[in-house]
UniProtKB/TrEMBL annotation:
It comes from Fusarium albosuccineum. Its main location: nucleus. Residues 1-77 are annotated as: Disordered. GO terms for biological process: mRNA splicing, via spliceosome. GO terms for cellular component: spliceosomal complex. Associated with the spliceosome. It is found in: Nucleus. The keyword Nucleus applies. Signal peptide: none annotated. Keywords: mRNA processing, mRNA splicing, Nucleus, Spliceosome. Residues 190-223 form the SKI-interacting protein SKIP SNW domain. This is Pre-mRNA-processing protein 45.
Length: 224
């Protein structure tokens, strides 16, 4: 058999195309998962990204770094590192109480920002040497009239203060009153005196009774 194959190969001419340089057709290409380098990726190729931890027995040296590594689960107690699944327990951005340096028109540092820290904008804080000088001795204040006001000024100021306080009190009282409640007219209760007779076949003498008749109470929450 070997002699026949050898004589047949010797009698036939050598093949012109060996097929080593030809590409296999698409239907004959190898199917399945192929490991390729980053330079061999094409835009038309689909790349599957696996999320979650590797299977047990293959976690030697593996550490969870991103949220995808936890795979919708919790931390791994066998891995002794800080883990924050779903960012639980992770400290966020902290605010600092440090004051920014401020300067005045002359370029000098305004250290009064330290004294104003923690106070409102409407609070007056004296932080300069000028605040120690009395108002009468300041050059920019001019003349200050400290005379006692007359009775007309006092009466006008008192009236304005009274009206302002009355407006505040009336507003607070009006806010506490219920609105859109129709209480109706309150009728006085009436009393009816009667003597029961022939109740359940009982013909014995009965004492007089008094009934108090009142109007039906209207529910303020009942829709109209």
């Amino acid at each position: 058999m070997t002699t026949i194959a050898g004589s047949l190969q010797a009698a036939l001419p050598k093949p012109r195309y060996t097929g080593e340089d030809e590409e296999a057709p698409a239907r004959a290409q190898q199917r399945g998962v192929r490991v390729v380098g980053p330079g061999q990726l094409d835009e038309t190729q689909l790349v599957l990204k696996r999320s979650g931890p590797p299977p047990y027995g293959q976690r030697s040296g593996w550490r969870p770094r991103a949220q995808e590594d936890f795979g919708d689960g919790g931390a791994f107690p066998e891995i002794p590192i800080a883990q924050y699944p779903l960012d639980m327990g992770k400290k966020g951005a902290t605010t600092s109480n440090a004051l920014a340096i401020q300067v005045d028109s002359e370029g000098k540092v305004k250290y009064d920002a330290i004294a104003r820290q923690g106070h409102g904008e409407n609070r007056i804080v004296h932080t300069s040497f000028k605040d120690l000088i009395p108002l009468r001795q300041r050059a920019e204040t001019g003349e200050i009239d400290l005379s006692r006001p007359d009775k007309e000024s006092v009466a006008a100021t008192t009236e304005r203060t009274k009206n302002a306080l009355a407006k505040l009190v009336s507003g607070a009282v009006a806010a506490q009153k219920p609105k859109n409640v129709n209480v109706g007219q309150q009728r006085e209760a009436t009393y009816v005196r009667y003597t029961p007779a022939n109740q359940m076949g009982d013909n014995s003498k009965k004492q007089d009774r008094i009934i108090k008749v009142v109007g039906k109470q209207q529910d303020p929450m009942e829709p109209a």
